[in-house]
Amino acid sequence: MAPNDSAETNGEATGTVVGRRKAARYIVPLAVAGVAAATIGLVPALADSGDPDLPEITAQELIEKIAASDEEQLSGTVKVSTDLGIPSLGGLAGSFAQGAGVGSGSDGASASPDAKLMELASGTHTLRVAVDGEDKQRLSVLGEGSEYSLVHNGDDIWGYDSESNEVYHAQAEGKARAGGKAADHKAAPGTPKQFADEALAAVGDTTSVTVDGTAQVAGRDAYKLVIKPKQSGSTIGSITVAVDASTGVPLKFTLAPSSGGKAAVDAGFTKVDFAKPDASSFSFTPPKGAKVTEADEAKAGAEKKGAEKKGAADKGAADKAQKDLGALEGFKGANVIGEGWTAVAKIEIPGGAGLPTQGSDGAPEQALQFLDAFGDKVTGDFGSGTLFKTRLVNALMTDDGKVYVGAVTKDALVKAADTAK
């Protein structure tokens, strides 16, 4: 086993890592809705075994090894599980997607990655991945008697939902793959590489990085890189990345909350092979009878529906909607209190209204009871408000219409609100 090694990172080291880190070439490009980042993980059963004896390596050397990794071909199985302490988002994903215009069912977009991959934000899932360079990737989400596949082959991106027998098709233009116009098709969540890149990008003066021994993941020898906040008050206890000793590819990513208990996020391979996948893995032809929706058609349909709704509204309602839309621009200018792992975003709610209370106009009692069930009443120098908690992200909505949100504890959130006051 390699002995423990500690590294105090600084801006210079971080810049080197970020500058050298290559794109995650083997992750499927797609259009995914913004889900708090990192809400996908691995069930570690059968993934870890042994404690291999590997040459000593420093934390900086291991970070550089990850950054220099250039493996472009692989295939394997990833098992994912997430425990954020919130209800499953599976049903909500479809609602969010419909509201965003991608629709489902008869709208022809149940195979759109926006809706399907959002389901990975909670629960347990098994994925199969195959990659052959920047232009050929496949991600399949296995269900009970069904499968959702996302295939990128050259200029085409196909999404197929076997349950509904629907197909979603988008063009991955050259600019998209180079990070240009079609950057809507971003890296798919669900692989350790994607999580590791995001974690390493956040490394700075408020972070300690150590090498904490070795492990075996998916039958391969790996070093364990541990990233921890130096500050108190974060809901994140530690992040552990198991790095393949030979290739430098992250094989497993585990995020442990500071409150203890099972991992909140844990992502990794149960099987992995760095040989060139068979070309047939990236071939796709819409099955007979499948409904095919083009991405441009889906977008045009959503815009048409929006225009029809707007046209049906009277002028007074339209003017009010425009005014409300302008007010919502205030959400874009969030202020950040603190830094590093304990940073808190302060957002002003348009109109300065907090949550509805008993006696509020248009606030059904059932709705208020629902909100109370999920939130805790808190007070401080800032006044009073309601705290909404998960295992990683907490949010405080004050009665005077301000929102404080961050991956911090209740006490740290209240302190930030008091400071801002």
What does this entry look like structurally?
By secondary structure, the chain is an alpha+beta fold. It folds into two domains: 5-282, outer membrane lipoprotein receptor (LolB), chain A, CATH 2.50.20.10; 331-420, TATA-Binding Protein (2-Layer Sandwich), CATH 3.30.310. Helix content is 24%, strand content 33%. The protein is built from ten helices and 21 strands. It has helices at 11-20, 59-68, 90-100, 113-116, 174-177, 192-201, 295-312, 315-328, 365-374, 410-420, and strands at 5-8, 29-31, 73-82, 123-132, 136-142, 147-153, 156-161, 166-171, 185-187, 207-217, 220-229, 236-244, 250-257, 265-273, 291-294, 335-337, 344-348, 375-380, 383-389, 394-398, 402-406.
- Our estimate of the beta-strand percent is 25-35%
Q: How many DSSP E strands?
A: 21
Mean pLDDT: 73
What is the SS-derived class? Answer: alpha+beta
Q: Give a short account of the largest sheet.
A: 13 strands, mixed
- Please, how many helices? 10
Global shape = globular
- Looking at the overall shape, the CATH architecture of the largest domain is Clam
Please give the radius of gyration in angstroms: 23 Å
What are the low-pLDDT stretches, counting only 5+ consecutive residues below 50? 1-6, 8-48, 89-108, 175-188, 306-315, 320-332
